[in-house]
Amino acid sequence: MPKRQLSIEVVDDGSTVSIVVHRWEVVGGVLVGPEHVADRQALSFPVDDVDQWHRDMCVMVLELL
């Protein structure tokens, strides 16, 4: 059975949010990947509370997948 890793990168530069999702697998001791799963760009919306920003980004990733 392969071991899997999901890599999620969120970059918010203040005007645009970029989300990139990759999957890695270890099959027979060999690392295979990255395999592109999804990506999205959206307009950034200012949020002063960092914890709220975390939650918003998680919701965006869940909607993407």
Give keywords.
alpha+beta
Written description of the protein model:
The protein has 65 residues and is of the alpha+beta class. Helix content is 23%, strand content 55%. The chain has one domain. It is built from 1 helix and 3 strands, in the order βββα. It has a 3-stranded antiparallel sheet, with helices on one face. β2 and β3 form a beta hairpin. The radius of gyration is 14 Å and the shape is elongated. The relative contact order is 0.25.
How do the strands and helices of this protein lay out in sequence?
Elements lengths: L2 E10 L3 E12 L2 E14 L6 H15 L1
Antiparallel strand pairs: 1-2, 2-3
Low-confidence stretches: none
- Element-by-element helix/strand order: EEEH
Strand line-up in the sheet with most strands: 1-2-3
Can you give the helix content as a percent range?
Answer: 10-25%
N→C terminal distance = 23 Å
Summarize this entry quickly:
The chain is α+β, with helices and mostly antiparallel strands. Helix content is 23%, strand content 55%.
